[in-house]
Design brief:
The chain is of the alpha+beta class. The protein is built from 18 helices and 30 strands.
Protein backbone atom coordinates (compact mmCIF):
# COMPACT_ATOMS: atom_id res chain seq x y z
CA UNK A 1 0.00 0.00 0.00
CA UNK A 2 1.28 3.47 -0.87
CA UNK A 3 2.05 6.43 1.37
CA UNK A 4 -0.81 8.12 3.22
CA UNK A 5 1.14 11.36 3.48
CA UNK A 6 4.40 13.09 2.66
CA UNK A 7 5.92 12.27 6.05
CA UNK A 8 5.75 8.52 5.35
CA UNK A 9 7.36 9.06 1.94
CA UNK A 10 10.20 11.20 3.32
CA UNK A 11 10.92 8.73 6.12
CA UNK A 12 11.00 5.80 3.71
CA UNK A 13 13.29 7.55 1.24
CA UNK A 14 15.65 8.54 4.05
CA UNK A 15 15.67 5.00 5.44
CA UNK A 16 16.55 3.55 2.02
CA UNK A 17 19.29 6.10 1.31
CA UNK A 18 17.34 7.98 -1.34
CA UNK A 19 17.01 11.24 0.63
CA UNK A 20 19.52 13.29 2.57
CA UNK A 21 19.02 16.04 5.13
CA UNK A 22 20.72 19.41 4.71
CA UNK A 23 21.33 21.05 8.07
CA UNK A 24 23.18 24.03 6.59
CA UNK A 25 21.03 27.22 6.58
CA UNK A 26 19.62 27.64 3.08
CA UNK A 27 17.68 30.63 1.77
CA UNK A 28 14.45 29.90 -0.13
CA UNK A 29 15.30 32.96 -2.22
CA UNK A 30 17.33 31.47 -5.15
CA UNK A 31 19.71 29.32 -3.06
CA UNK A 32 17.45 26.29 -2.59
CA UNK A 33 16.62 26.25 -6.30
CA UNK A 34 20.28 26.47 -7.31
CA UNK A 35 21.15 23.54 -5.01
CA UNK A 36 18.19 21.54 -6.35
CA UNK A 37 19.17 22.09 -10.00
CA UNK A 38 22.70 20.82 -9.42
CA UNK A 39 21.64 17.74 -7.50
CA UNK A 40 18.92 16.90 -10.04
CA UNK A 41 21.42 17.24 -12.92
CA UNK A 42 23.77 14.84 -11.12
CA UNK A 43 21.01 12.25 -10.67
CA UNK A 44 21.26 12.81 -6.92
CA UNK A 45 18.94 12.08 -3.99
CA UNK A 46 15.87 13.86 -2.69
CA UNK A 47 16.79 16.82 -0.48
CA UNK A 48 15.27 17.74 2.89
CA UNK A 49 16.21 21.30 3.85
CA UNK A 50 15.90 21.28 7.65
CA UNK A 51 17.09 24.83 8.20
CA UNK A 52 15.30 27.29 5.90
CA UNK A 53 16.37 30.88 6.56
CA UNK A 54 13.63 32.92 8.27
CA UNK A 55 11.06 30.14 8.00
CA UNK A 56 9.75 27.58 10.50
CA UNK A 57 8.92 24.98 7.87
CA UNK A 58 11.39 22.50 6.34
CA UNK A 59 11.39 22.09 2.57
CA UNK A 60 11.86 18.98 0.46
CA UNK A 61 12.74 18.76 -3.23
CA UNK A 62 13.84 16.34 -5.92
CA UNK A 63 11.43 13.68 -4.63
CA UNK A 64 10.74 12.62 -8.22
CA UNK A 65 14.22 13.45 -9.51
CA UNK A 66 14.90 10.09 -11.18
CA UNK A 67 12.64 7.55 -12.85
CA UNK A 68 13.92 4.87 -10.50
CA UNK A 69 12.88 6.92 -7.45
CA UNK A 70 9.51 7.85 -8.99
CA UNK A 71 8.81 4.18 -9.70
CA UNK A 72 9.88 3.33 -6.16
CA UNK A 73 7.48 5.88 -4.66
CA UNK A 74 4.57 4.37 -6.62
CA UNK A 75 5.88 0.80 -6.63
CA UNK A 76 2.77 -0.68 -5.00
CA UNK A 77 0.39 0.75 -7.56
CA UNK A 78 2.03 1.17 -10.96
CA UNK A 79 1.33 -2.30 -12.30
CA UNK A 80 -2.30 -2.10 -11.12
CA UNK A 81 -2.80 1.30 -12.75
CA UNK A 82 -1.19 -0.02 -15.94
CA UNK A 83 -3.65 -2.93 -15.79
CA UNK A 84 -6.57 -0.53 -15.51
CA UNK A 85 -5.32 1.38 -18.52
CA UNK A 86 -4.83 -1.83 -20.50
CA UNK A 87 -8.42 -2.78 -19.67
CA UNK A 88 -9.51 0.48 -21.23
CA UNK A 89 -7.56 -0.54 -24.32
CA UNK A 90 -9.11 -4.04 -24.35
CA UNK A 91 -11.84 -4.66 -21.70
CA UNK A 92 -12.22 -8.28 -22.83
CA UNK A 93 -8.82 -9.04 -21.28
CA UNK A 94 -10.48 -9.35 -17.86
CA UNK A 95 -13.06 -11.81 -19.21
CA UNK A 96 -10.59 -13.90 -21.17
CA UNK A 97 -7.77 -13.96 -18.61
CA UNK A 98 -8.94 -12.76 -15.17
CA UNK A 99 -5.68 -13.89 -13.57
CA UNK A 100 -3.80 -11.39 -15.74
CA UNK A 101 -5.60 -8.54 -13.99
CA UNK A 102 -4.93 -9.14 -10.29
CA UNK A 103 -5.75 -6.41 -7.82
CA UNK A 104 -8.16 -4.57 -10.13
CA UNK A 105 -11.03 -4.76 -7.64
CA UNK A 106 -8.87 -3.34 -4.84
CA UNK A 107 -7.61 -0.56 -7.07
CA UNK A 108 -11.15 0.38 -8.06
CA UNK A 109 -12.25 0.48 -4.41
CA UNK A 110 -9.33 2.77 -3.53
CA UNK A 111 -10.53 5.32 -6.09
CA UNK A 112 -13.46 6.38 -3.88
CA UNK A 113 -12.27 9.04 -1.39
CA UNK A 114 -12.65 8.33 2.32
CA UNK A 115 -14.67 11.21 3.80
CA UNK A 116 -13.60 12.65 7.16
CA UNK A 117 -14.81 15.36 9.54
CA UNK A 118 -11.29 16.70 10.10
CA UNK A 119 -7.68 15.88 9.40
CA UNK A 120 -4.05 16.64 10.31
CA UNK A 121 -3.88 19.53 7.84
CA UNK A 122 -6.38 21.49 9.95
CA UNK A 123 -4.34 21.28 13.18
CA UNK A 124 -2.85 24.79 12.80
CA UNK A 125 -3.32 28.09 11.00
CA UNK A 126 -0.71 30.47 9.64
CA UNK A 127 -0.41 33.26 7.05
CA UNK A 128 0.89 33.43 3.49
CA UNK A 129 3.98 35.43 4.44
CA UNK A 130 5.06 32.75 6.94
CA UNK A 131 5.14 30.05 4.27
CA UNK A 132 8.47 29.28 2.51
CA UNK A 133 9.02 32.12 0.07
CA UNK A 134 10.54 30.08 -2.76
CA UNK A 135 12.03 32.06 -5.60
CA UNK A 136 13.79 30.05 -8.32
CA UNK A 137 15.07 32.59 -10.86
CA UNK A 138 16.39 36.14 -10.38
CA UNK A 139 13.63 37.95 -12.29
CA UNK A 140 10.69 35.99 -10.86
CA UNK A 141 7.98 38.41 -9.78
CA UNK A 142 7.80 36.99 -6.27
CA UNK A 143 7.64 33.72 -4.38
CA UNK A 144 5.73 30.84 -5.99
CA UNK A 145 4.28 27.47 -5.07
CA UNK A 146 5.84 25.17 -7.65
CA UNK A 147 4.02 21.95 -6.70
CA UNK A 148 0.50 23.25 -6.03
CA UNK A 149 -2.58 21.06 -6.15
CA UNK A 150 -5.46 23.40 -6.96
CA UNK A 151 -8.77 21.75 -6.09
CA UNK A 152 -12.18 22.94 -7.27
CA UNK A 153 -15.65 21.43 -7.51
CA UNK A 154 -18.22 22.17 -10.19
CA UNK A 155 -20.54 24.92 -8.90
CA UNK A 156 -23.61 23.11 -10.25
CA UNK A 157 -22.56 19.64 -9.08
CA UNK A 158 -20.51 19.84 -5.87
CA UNK A 159 -18.57 16.82 -4.68
CA UNK A 160 -15.49 14.92 -5.74
CA UNK A 161 -17.13 13.23 -8.77
CA UNK A 162 -17.13 16.51 -10.71
CA UNK A 163 -14.00 17.93 -9.10
CA UNK A 164 -10.75 19.04 -10.68
CA UNK A 165 -7.25 18.85 -9.23
CA UNK A 166 -4.65 20.65 -11.32
CA UNK A 167 -1.12 21.95 -10.98
CA UNK A 168 -1.69 25.63 -11.73
CA UNK A 169 1.08 27.83 -10.46
CA UNK A 170 0.40 30.11 -7.51
CA UNK A 171 2.22 33.38 -6.81
CA UNK A 172 2.38 34.08 -3.07
CA UNK A 173 3.32 37.75 -3.18
CA UNK A 174 4.79 40.66 -5.07
CA UNK A 175 3.26 42.75 -7.83
CA UNK A 176 -0.07 44.26 -6.70
CA UNK A 177 -1.21 41.42 -4.44
CA UNK A 178 -2.40 42.42 -0.96
CA UNK A 179 -0.01 40.87 1.53
CA UNK A 180 -1.42 37.76 3.23
CA UNK A 181 -4.82 38.41 1.65
CA UNK A 182 -4.33 37.56 -2.04
CA UNK A 183 -2.38 35.09 -4.16
CA UNK A 184 -2.11 34.85 -7.93
CA UNK A 185 -3.61 31.88 -9.80
CA UNK A 186 -2.14 31.21 -13.23
CA UNK A 187 -4.01 28.62 -15.23
CA UNK A 188 -3.41 28.16 -18.92
CA UNK A 189 -5.81 27.46 -21.75
CA UNK A 190 -7.37 24.02 -22.05
CA UNK A 191 -7.41 23.40 -18.30
CA UNK A 192 -10.48 21.97 -16.56
CA UNK A 193 -10.50 24.63 -13.86
CA UNK A 194 -11.58 27.02 -16.61
CA UNK A 195 -14.86 25.11 -17.00
CA UNK A 196 -15.54 25.42 -13.26
CA UNK A 197 -14.64 29.12 -13.29
CA UNK A 198 -16.91 29.71 -16.26
CA UNK A 199 -19.81 27.91 -14.57
CA UNK A 200 -19.37 30.02 -11.44
CA UNK A 201 -19.36 33.25 -13.44
CA UNK A 202 -22.54 32.20 -15.26
CA UNK A 203 -24.23 31.80 -11.87
CA UNK A 204 -22.93 35.17 -10.69
CA UNK A 205 -20.79 33.44 -8.06
CA UNK A 206 -17.11 33.42 -7.14
CA UNK A 207 -15.33 30.12 -7.65
CA UNK A 208 -14.27 28.49 -4.38
CA UNK A 209 -10.72 27.13 -4.40
CA UNK A 210 -8.55 25.03 -2.11
CA UNK A 211 -4.82 24.91 -2.78
CA UNK A 212 -3.08 21.87 -1.29
CA UNK A 213 0.69 21.62 -0.86
CA UNK A 214 2.23 18.28 0.06
CA UNK A 215 0.17 15.34 1.24
CA UNK A 216 0.19 11.94 -0.45
CA UNK A 217 2.68 11.91 -3.37
CA UNK A 218 -0.09 10.39 -5.47
CA UNK A 219 -1.97 13.69 -5.31
CA UNK A 220 1.01 15.50 -6.84
CA UNK A 221 1.21 13.12 -9.78
CA UNK A 222 -2.58 13.02 -10.23
CA UNK A 223 -2.60 16.84 -10.49
CA UNK A 224 -0.50 16.69 -13.68
CA UNK A 225 -2.13 13.62 -15.27
CA UNK A 226 -4.01 14.29 -18.55
CA UNK A 227 -7.08 12.32 -17.48
CA UNK A 228 -10.18 11.98 -19.66
CA UNK A 229 -13.38 13.76 -18.64
CA UNK A 230 -15.29 11.86 -16.01
CA UNK A 231 -12.27 10.58 -14.04
CA UNK A 232 -11.60 12.87 -11.06
CA UNK A 233 -7.95 13.32 -10.19
CA UNK A 234 -8.58 12.54 -6.51
CA UNK A 235 -9.93 9.15 -7.58
CA UNK A 236 -6.84 8.51 -9.71
CA UNK A 237 -4.68 9.54 -6.74
CA UNK A 238 -6.36 6.80 -4.74
CA UNK A 239 -5.50 4.26 -7.43
CA UNK A 240 -1.88 5.49 -7.46
CA UNK A 241 -1.50 4.99 -3.72
CA UNK A 242 -3.67 1.89 -3.43
CA UNK A 243 -5.55 3.60 -0.61
CA UNK A 244 -8.50 5.98 -0.62
CA UNK A 245 -7.56 9.66 -0.38
CA UNK A 246 -8.90 11.10 2.87
CA UNK A 247 -10.99 14.19 2.19
CA UNK A 248 -12.57 16.51 4.76
CA UNK A 249 -16.10 17.62 3.98
CA UNK A 250 -16.77 21.35 4.17
CA UNK A 251 -20.11 23.10 4.44
CA UNK A 252 -20.75 25.07 1.24
CA UNK A 253 -17.08 24.75 0.21
CA UNK A 254 -14.86 22.26 -1.62
CA UNK A 255 -13.41 19.34 0.31
CA UNK A 256 -9.93 19.51 1.84
CA UNK A 257 -7.28 16.81 1.55
CA UNK A 258 -6.98 15.64 5.17
CA UNK A 259 -3.34 14.52 4.83
CA UNK A 260 -2.07 17.59 2.96
CA UNK A 261 0.76 19.49 4.62
CA UNK A 262 -0.74 22.87 3.81
CA UNK A 263 -4.08 24.14 2.49
CA UNK A 264 -4.92 27.65 1.34
CA UNK A 265 -8.68 28.20 1.09
CA UNK A 266 -10.27 31.07 -0.77
CA UNK A 267 -12.38 32.32 -3.63
CA UNK A 268 -11.42 33.62 -7.06
CA UNK A 269 -11.84 37.40 -7.02
CA UNK A 270 -13.85 39.38 -9.52
CA UNK A 271 -10.68 41.10 -10.74
CA UNK A 272 -7.50 39.97 -12.45
CA UNK A 273 -4.10 41.29 -11.48
CA UNK A 274 -0.62 41.14 -13.05
CA UNK A 275 1.06 37.78 -12.42
CA UNK A 276 4.69 36.88 -13.09
CA UNK A 277 7.35 36.95 -14.40
CA UNK A 278 8.15 33.30 -13.71
CA UNK A 279 11.02 31.17 -14.97
CA UNK A 280 9.16 28.44 -16.79
CA UNK A 281 9.71 24.96 -18.20
CA UNK A 282 10.48 26.12 -21.75
CA UNK A 283 13.69 27.69 -20.43
CA UNK A 284 12.46 31.29 -20.64
CA UNK A 285 10.50 33.63 -18.40
CA UNK A 286 6.77 33.75 -18.80
CA UNK A 287 6.06 37.46 -18.69
CA UNK A 288 3.65 39.60 -16.71
CA UNK A 289 0.00 39.18 -17.68
CA UNK A 290 -3.31 39.63 -15.91
CA UNK A 291 -4.53 36.38 -14.37
CA UNK A 292 -7.11 35.44 -11.74
CA UNK A 293 -6.57 36.28 -8.09
CA UNK A 294 -7.57 34.19 -5.06
CA UNK A 295 -8.82 36.08 -2.00
CA UNK A 296 -7.36 34.06 0.86
CA UNK A 297 -9.69 32.92 3.66
CA UNK A 298 -7.56 30.49 5.67
CA UNK A 299 -4.05 29.00 5.58
CA UNK A 300 -3.93 25.63 7.35
CA UNK A 301 -0.96 23.40 8.08
CA UNK A 302 -0.31 20.17 9.92
CA UNK A 303 2.01 20.17 12.94
CA UNK A 304 4.76 18.25 11.14
CA UNK A 305 4.33 20.07 7.82
CA UNK A 306 6.99 19.85 5.11
CA UNK A 307 6.94 22.18 2.07
CA UNK A 308 7.63 20.23 -1.15
CA UNK A 309 8.94 22.10 -4.17
CA UNK A 310 10.45 21.60 -7.58
CA UNK A 311 12.32 23.87 -9.96
CA UNK A 312 11.42 24.30 -13.59
CA UNK A 313 13.59 25.73 -16.33
CA UNK A 314 15.15 24.63 -19.57
CA UNK A 315 14.54 20.88 -19.78
CA UNK A 316 15.43 18.38 -18.62
CA UNK A 317 14.33 19.16 -15.07
CA UNK A 318 12.43 17.20 -12.42
CA UNK A 319 9.15 17.68 -14.31
CA UNK A 320 10.76 15.66 -17.11
CA UNK A 321 10.30 12.61 -14.89
CA UNK A 322 6.60 13.43 -14.54
CA UNK A 323 6.34 13.42 -18.32
CA UNK A 324 8.15 10.10 -18.65
CA UNK A 325 5.99 8.51 -15.98
CA UNK A 326 2.80 9.81 -17.57
CA UNK A 327 3.93 8.47 -20.95
CA UNK A 328 4.74 5.12 -19.40
CA UNK A 329 1.27 4.90 -17.85
CA UNK A 330 -0.88 6.31 -20.64
CA UNK A 331 1.05 5.37 -23.79
CA UNK A 332 -0.66 1.99 -24.20
CA UNK A 333 -4.09 3.68 -24.26
CA UNK A 334 -3.29 6.00 -27.18
CA UNK A 335 -4.65 3.67 -29.92
CA UNK A 336 -8.04 3.49 -28.16
CA UNK A 337 -8.30 7.26 -27.78
CA UNK A 338 -6.95 7.94 -31.27
CA UNK A 339 -7.72 5.01 -33.60
CA UNK A 340 -5.06 4.68 -36.27
CA UNK A 341 -2.39 6.31 -34.10
CA UNK A 342 0.26 3.91 -32.83
CA UNK A 343 2.21 6.23 -30.52
CA UNK A 344 2.82 9.88 -29.61
CA UNK A 345 5.76 11.53 -27.90
CA UNK A 346 5.91 15.13 -26.67
CA UNK A 347 9.61 15.95 -26.80
CA UNK A 348 10.76 17.21 -23.43
CA UNK A 349 14.01 18.79 -24.62
CA UNK A 350 11.99 20.98 -26.99
CA UNK A 351 9.75 22.19 -24.16
CA UNK A 352 7.00 19.50 -24.54
CA UNK A 353 4.24 21.36 -26.42
CA UNK A 354 6.45 22.93 -29.12
CA UNK A 355 7.29 19.54 -30.66
CA UNK A 356 5.13 16.43 -30.86
CA UNK A 357 6.12 13.23 -32.67
CA UNK A 358 3.62 10.58 -33.76
CA UNK A 359 3.48 7.28 -35.59
CA UNK A 360 0.28 6.39 -37.39
CA UNK A 361 -1.10 3.92 -39.87
CA UNK A 362 -1.19 4.61 -43.60
CA UNK A 363 -3.74 2.09 -44.96
CA UNK A 364 -6.18 4.06 -47.11
CA UNK A 365 -4.89 2.69 -50.40
CA UNK A 366 -2.72 -0.36 -49.62
CA UNK A 367 -2.84 -1.32 -53.29
CA UNK A 368 -1.15 1.90 -54.43
CA UNK A 369 2.30 1.51 -55.93
CA UNK A 370 3.55 4.58 -54.05
CA UNK A 371 2.64 5.36 -50.43
CA UNK A 372 1.97 8.99 -49.52
CA UNK A 373 0.39 10.71 -46.49
CA UNK A 374 -3.39 10.25 -46.49
CA UNK A 375 -4.57 8.46 -43.36
CA UNK A 376 -1.66 10.16 -41.61
CA UNK A 377 -3.34 13.53 -42.18
CA UNK A 378 -6.56 12.23 -40.66
CA UNK A 379 -4.54 11.00 -37.70
CA UNK A 380 -2.74 14.34 -37.39
CA UNK A 381 -5.98 16.31 -37.28
CA UNK A 382 -7.36 13.93 -34.67
CA UNK A 383 -4.24 14.42 -32.54
CA UNK A 384 -4.54 18.19 -32.72
CA UNK A 385 -8.14 17.90 -31.57
CA UNK A 386 -7.36 15.78 -28.52
CA UNK A 387 -6.94 17.33 -25.07
CA UNK A 388 -3.61 18.89 -24.33
CA UNK A 389 -2.13 17.36 -27.48
CA UNK A 390 -4.02 20.17 -29.21
CA UNK A 391 -1.39 22.59 -27.87
CA UNK A 392 1.34 21.05 -30.05
CA UNK A 393 3.05 23.58 -32.33
CA UNK A 394 5.05 21.28 -34.62
CA UNK A 395 3.66 17.79 -35.26
CA UNK A 396 5.89 15.33 -37.13
CA UNK A 397 4.03 12.14 -38.04
CA UNK A 398 5.50 9.03 -39.70
CA UNK A 399 3.85 5.97 -41.25
CA UNK A 400 4.11 2.78 -39.21
CA UNK A 401 4.17 0.70 -42.40
CA UNK A 402 7.44 2.30 -43.54
CA UNK A 403 9.32 0.96 -40.52
CA UNK A 404 7.37 -1.09 -37.96
CA UNK A 405 10.41 -1.01 -35.66
CA UNK A 406 10.72 2.79 -35.56
CA UNK A 407 11.11 3.87 -31.92
CA UNK A 408 9.25 7.10 -31.21
CA UNK A 409 11.39 7.69 -28.12
CA UNK A 410 14.60 7.71 -30.19
CA UNK A 411 14.08 11.29 -31.34
CA UNK A 412 17.26 11.51 -33.45
CA UNK A 413 16.40 8.32 -35.34
CA UNK A 414 12.84 9.53 -35.81
CA UNK A 415 14.10 12.78 -37.35
CA UNK A 416 16.35 10.82 -39.67
CA UNK A 417 13.42 8.65 -40.78
CA UNK A 418 11.31 11.74 -41.49
CA UNK A 419 14.00 13.74 -43.28
CA UNK A 420 14.83 10.82 -45.58
CA UNK A 421 11.20 10.63 -46.75
CA UNK A 422 9.60 14.06 -46.56
CA UNK A 423 8.47 15.56 -49.89
CA UNK A 424 8.85 19.28 -49.29
CA UNK A 425 6.60 20.15 -52.22
CA UNK A 426 3.70 18.24 -50.62
CA UNK A 427 4.09 17.26 -46.98
CA UNK A 428 3.84 20.49 -44.98
CA UNK A 429 0.40 21.54 -43.74
CA UNK A 430 -0.16 24.72 -41.74
CA UNK A 431 -2.80 25.89 -39.29
CA UNK A 432 -2.52 29.64 -38.98
CA UNK A 433 -3.97 31.98 -36.36
CA UNK A 434 -4.83 29.31 -33.85
CA UNK A 435 -4.08 28.56 -30.20
CA UNK A 436 -0.71 27.50 -28.81
CA UNK A 437 0.65 26.97 -25.32
CA UNK A 438 0.21 29.97 -23.00
CA UNK A 439 3.91 29.81 -22.11
CA UNK A 440 5.08 29.96 -25.74
CA UNK A 441 5.99 33.52 -26.76
CA UNK A 442 6.89 32.81 -30.38
CA UNK A 443 3.40 33.63 -31.66
CA UNK A 444 1.47 36.79 -32.33
CA UNK A 445 0.10 37.17 -28.79
CA UNK A 446 -0.70 35.32 -25.58
CA UNK A 447 -2.12 31.88 -26.50
CA UNK A 448 -1.92 32.85 -30.20
CA UNK A 449 0.24 31.33 -32.90
CA UNK A 450 0.26 28.65 -35.55
CA UNK A 451 0.90 24.96 -36.11
CA UNK A 452 2.72 22.89 -38.70
CA UNK A 453 2.00 19.27 -39.53
CA UNK A 454 4.87 17.48 -41.23
CA UNK A 455 3.73 14.09 -42.56
CA UNK A 456 6.02 11.58 -44.26
CA UNK A 457 5.20 8.25 -45.85
CA UNK A 458 6.82 6.08 -48.48
CA UNK A 459 10.29 5.02 -49.51
CA UNK A 460 13.42 7.03 -48.81
CA UNK A 461 13.91 9.73 -51.42
CA UNK A 462 17.27 11.11 -50.27
CA UNK A 463 20.39 10.33 -48.31
CA UNK A 464 21.28 12.72 -45.50
CA UNK A 465 24.64 14.52 -45.50
CA UNK A 466 26.70 14.37 -42.32
CA UNK A 467 29.38 16.94 -43.17
CA UNK A 468 29.42 20.52 -44.40
CA UNK A 469 30.10 20.39 -48.17
CA UNK A 470 33.44 21.89 -49.13
CA UNK A 471 31.78 23.81 -51.97
CA UNK A 472 29.00 25.30 -49.80
CA UNK A 473 28.54 29.04 -50.33
CA UNK A 474 26.36 31.30 -48.21
CA UNK A 475 24.87 34.75 -48.84
CA UNK A 476 26.71 37.71 -47.25
CA UNK A 477 26.07 38.05 -43.51
CA UNK A 478 25.53 34.32 -42.92
CA UNK A 479 28.33 32.17 -41.51
CA UNK A 480 29.55 29.24 -39.42
CA UNK A 481 27.57 26.35 -40.96
CA UNK A 482 27.43 23.36 -38.58
CA UNK A 483 25.78 19.96 -38.97
CA UNK A 484 23.41 19.33 -36.04
CA UNK A 485 22.48 15.80 -37.12
CA UNK A 486 22.34 14.07 -40.50
CA UNK A 487 20.38 16.26 -42.90
CA UNK A 488 20.18 19.30 -40.60
CA UNK A 489 22.40 22.36 -41.02
CA UNK A 490 22.57 25.29 -38.56
CA UNK A 491 23.79 28.65 -39.86
CA UNK A 492 24.59 31.79 -37.89
CA UNK A 493 22.41 34.62 -39.23
CA UNK A 494 22.37 38.38 -38.54
CA UNK A 495 20.60 39.28 -35.31
CA UNK A 496 16.86 39.97 -35.32
CA UNK A 497 16.41 43.71 -35.81
CA UNK A 498 12.69 44.50 -36.17
CA UNK A 499 9.84 44.87 -33.71
CA UNK A 500 6.91 42.84 -35.03
CA UNK A 501 6.72 39.06 -35.62
CA UNK A 502 7.42 37.96 -39.17
CA UNK A 503 8.62 41.37 -40.31
CA UNK A 504 12.37 40.75 -40.56
CA UNK A 505 13.30 40.35 -44.26
CA UNK A 506 16.55 38.46 -43.53
CA UNK A 507 15.22 34.86 -43.79
CA UNK A 508 13.48 35.56 -47.09
CA UNK A 509 16.58 37.28 -48.43
CA UNK A 510 18.56 34.16 -47.48
CA UNK A 511 16.17 31.93 -49.43
CA UNK A 512 15.98 34.28 -52.43
CA UNK A 513 19.78 34.33 -52.72
CA UNK A 514 19.95 30.56 -53.19
CA UNK A 515 18.72 28.54 -56.16
CA UNK A 516 17.17 25.08 -55.96
CA UNK A 517 20.38 23.78 -57.57
CA UNK A 518 22.55 25.15 -54.72
CA UNK A 519 24.59 22.67 -52.70
CA UNK A 520 22.79 23.64 -49.49
CA UNK A 521 19.65 21.85 -50.71
CA UNK A 522 21.31 18.52 -49.96
CA UNK A 523 20.15 19.34 -46.43
CA UNK A 524 16.35 19.02 -46.19
CA UNK A 525 16.36 21.20 -43.04
CA UNK A 526 18.31 24.42 -42.50
CA UNK A 527 18.02 26.37 -39.25
CA UNK A 528 18.97 30.06 -39.01
CA UNK A 529 20.18 30.80 -35.50
CA UNK A 530 22.09 33.32 -33.41
CA UNK A 531 24.92 30.86 -32.69
CA UNK A 532 25.28 27.85 -34.98
CA UNK A 533 28.07 26.30 -32.93
CA UNK A 534 25.88 26.31 -29.80
CA UNK A 535 22.91 24.90 -31.72
CA UNK A 536 25.00 22.03 -33.10
CA UNK A 537 26.90 21.32 -29.88
CA UNK A 538 24.29 18.83 -28.74
CA UNK A 539 21.06 17.32 -30.01
CA UNK A 540 19.30 18.87 -27.02
CA UNK A 541 20.51 22.33 -28.04
CA UNK A 542 19.18 21.82 -31.56
CA UNK A 543 15.75 20.77 -30.28
CA UNK A 544 15.52 23.59 -27.75
CA UNK A 545 16.68 26.38 -30.05
CA UNK A 546 14.76 25.30 -33.14
CA UNK A 547 11.35 24.62 -31.64
CA UNK A 548 11.15 27.12 -28.78
CA UNK A 549 12.24 30.07 -30.96
CA UNK A 550 10.03 29.70 -34.03
CA UNK A 551 6.38 30.16 -34.94
CA UNK A 552 5.60 28.10 -38.07
CA UNK A 553 3.47 30.65 -39.93
CA UNK A 554 5.99 33.44 -39.37
CA UNK A 555 9.31 31.61 -39.24
CA UNK A 556 9.17 28.71 -41.73
CA UNK A 557 10.62 29.52 -45.14
CA UNK A 558 11.78 27.52 -48.11
CA UNK A 559 14.25 27.72 -50.98
CA UNK A 560 12.37 27.65 -54.27
CA UNK A 561 9.00 28.26 -52.59
CA UNK A 562 5.72 28.21 -54.52
CA UNK A 563 1.98 28.41 -53.87
CA UNK A 564 -0.39 26.18 -55.79
CA UNK A 565 -4.15 26.12 -55.06
CA UNK A 566 -3.41 27.68 -51.67
CA UNK A 567 -0.91 24.93 -50.84
CA UNK A 568 2.57 26.23 -50.02
CA UNK A 569 5.67 24.16 -50.66
CA UNK A 570 9.21 24.44 -51.97
CA UNK A 571 11.67 22.60 -54.15
CA UNK A 572 14.74 23.23 -52.04
CA UNK A 573 15.50 23.16 -48.32
CA UNK A 574 13.05 23.83 -45.50
CA UNK A 575 14.40 26.86 -43.61
CA UNK A 576 13.37 27.66 -40.03
CA UNK A 577 14.21 31.05 -38.54
CA UNK A 578 15.09 30.15 -34.92
CA UNK A 579 16.76 33.35 -33.85
CA UNK A 580 15.75 35.08 -30.63
CA UNK A 581 13.27 37.82 -31.49
CA UNK A 582 12.33 41.00 -29.70
CA UNK A 583 8.79 39.85 -28.87
CA UNK A 584 10.02 36.66 -27.20
CA UNK A 585 10.67 36.18 -23.51
CA UNK A 586 14.28 36.20 -22.29
CA UNK A 587 16.10 32.93 -21.54
CA UNK A 588 16.71 31.97 -17.91
CA UNK A 589 20.07 32.73 -16.33
CA UNK A 590 21.29 32.17 -12.77
CA UNK A 591 22.30 34.96 -10.39
CA UNK A 592 26.15 35.02 -10.39
CA UNK A 593 26.35 35.89 -6.68
CA UNK A 594 24.10 33.01 -5.71
CA UNK A 595 26.04 30.69 -8.02
CA UNK A 596 29.28 31.71 -6.32
CA UNK A 597 27.82 31.09 -2.85
CA UNK A 598 26.45 27.66 -3.82
CA UNK A 599 29.80 26.82 -5.44
CA UNK A 600 31.34 27.14 -1.98
CA UNK A 601 28.72 24.80 -0.49
CA UNK A 602 29.65 22.13 -3.05
CA UNK A 603 33.41 22.63 -2.72
CA UNK A 604 35.64 20.11 -0.92
CA UNK A 605 35.29 22.05 2.33
CA UNK A 606 31.60 22.78 1.83
CA UNK A 607 28.63 21.18 3.56
CA UNK A 608 27.25 19.78 0.30
CA UNK A 609 30.46 18.33 -1.13
CA UNK A 610 29.88 15.16 -3.11
CA UNK A 611 26.18 15.75 -3.84
CA UNK A 612 26.79 17.11 -7.34
Amino acid sequence: MGYANLQQCVADLEKTGQLIRIAEPVDANLEAAEIHRRVYAAGGPALLFDNVVDCQFPMVSNLFGTMDRARYIFRDALKHVETLISLKKDPTTLLRSPLKAPGVAGTLLSMRPALRRSGPVMQNETSISKLPQLKCWPDDGGAFITLPQVYTEHPDRPGYVNSNLGMYRVQLGGNQYKKDRQVGLHYQIHRSIGFHHSAALEKGERLKVNIFVGGPPSMTLAAVMPLPDGIPEVAFAGALSRRAVRMVRQKDAPMICAEADFCITGTVAAEELPEGPFGDHLGYYSLVHDFPVVDVHKVYHRSDAIWPFTVVGRPPQEDTVFGELIHELTGPAIPTVLPGVKAVHAVDEAGVHPLLLAIGNERYVPYATKRQPQELLTNANAILGQGQLSLAKYLFIAAHQDNPNLDINDVAAFFGHMLERIDLTRDLHFQTRTTIDTLDYTGTGLNEGSKLIVAAAGERIRSLPTEVPSDLTLPPGFSSPCVCLPGVLAITAPKWSTASPGSDPIPQQFCDALSVEAVINRFPLVVLVDDAEFCARSFGNFLWVTFTRSNPAADVYGIGAFTEQKHWGFRGSLVIDARLKSHMAPPLECDPKVTEKVDRLFSKSGALHGLA
